[in-house]
């Protein structure tokens, strides 16, 4: 698992942050998306190419576009569809920390 301590974070629900996140992704910069606790990230990620961390059980190194699109469908958050399109352009990967309500987007 990678170290997340030096990655910038954005709350997805703050006004305009979806476009900041999209720019960050398109510049291939790592980013932690913070989501409200009421949003469940426990989604079926089969077919998204995820590996599961043995200790934390966090799905990581998922295909960013596929995983973000699956999460968009699961949560109903259209902002995640915008980010899925950006992730597809740069082949970004994602880690899903469902219990921490975080999506980590990386190279």
Descriptive account of the structure:
The chain is of the alpha+beta class and 107 residues long. The chain has one domain (9-106). It has helices at 17-26, 64-75, 78-90; strands at residues 9-11, 31-34, 51-52, 59-60, 62-63, 93-97, 102-106. The strands form two sheets. Strands 1-2-7-6-5 form a five-stranded mixed beta sheet. Strands 3-4 form a two-stranded antiparallel ribbon. The two termini are 13 Å apart.
Q: How large, in whole angstroms, is the Cα Rg?
A: 12 Å
Structural class based on helices, strands and sheet pairing: alpha+beta
Major sheet size, sense and barrel closure: 5 strands, mixed
Low-confidence spans: pLDDT under 50, at least 5 residues?
A: none
Total number of distinct structural domains: 1
Taking all residues together, what is the mean pLDDT? 94
Q: β content, as a range?
A: 15-25%
Q: Helix share of residues?
A: 25-40%
Number of helices: 3
Would you summarize the structure shown here?
The chain is an alpha+beta fold and 107 residues long. It has helices spanning 17-26, 64-75, 78-90, and strands at residues 9-11, 31-34, 51-52, 59-60, 62-63, 93-97, 102-106.
